[in-house]
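// run 5 | inverse folding | seed 20
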């Protein structure tokens, strides 16, 4: 069962949202920061190294992005309940402009200001304002007893 947008607000799943961000089946997440990846990453069987990034400079809060790959952080703090799982999807407006967000599953118990990968595929680039709604978080209940909650490397990120 998926939770309604207002349920996510009432349960404290999304904090720091704008009222217009509440949708029938979730809550929109807004753009907080944009970085260009500045070095290679490494993902091995036992270890990983997340690449550093360089902040994208914006003029009056509007960022001019050329085609390519960026890492973004959302403004809102997300706290996934222990009996639920979160899914993050790009908003259709972003897709229609030639942008796409790659988001991961947010496990039960995750809390933080999440990140996603922004792909600008429009050959003419994309102008985007800090604070623009770029993703929608939907949350589903996990059936059965859940005794294992997220305690990975990204717990508390961006806080």
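// decoded
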């Amino acid at each position: 069962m998926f939770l309604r947008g207002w349920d996510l607000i009432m349960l404290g799943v999304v904090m720091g949202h704008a009222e217009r961000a509440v949708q029938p089946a979730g809550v929109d997440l807004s753009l907080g920061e944009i970085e260009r990846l500045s070095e290679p990453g490494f993902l091995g069987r036992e270890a990983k190294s997340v690449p550093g990034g360089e902040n994208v400079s914006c003029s009056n809060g509007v960022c001019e992005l050329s085609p390519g790959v960026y890492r973004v952080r959302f403004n809102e703090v997300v706290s996934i309940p222990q009996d639920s799982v979160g899914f993050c999807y790009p908003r259709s407006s972003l897709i229609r402009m030639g942008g796409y967000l790659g988001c991961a599953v947010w496990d039960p118990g995750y809390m933080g200001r999440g990140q996603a990968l922004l792909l600008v595929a429009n050959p003419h680039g994309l102008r985007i304002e800090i604070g623009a709604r770029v993703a929608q978080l939907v949350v589903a209940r996990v059936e059965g007893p859940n005794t294992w909650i997220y305690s990975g490397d990204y717990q508390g990120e961006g806080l």
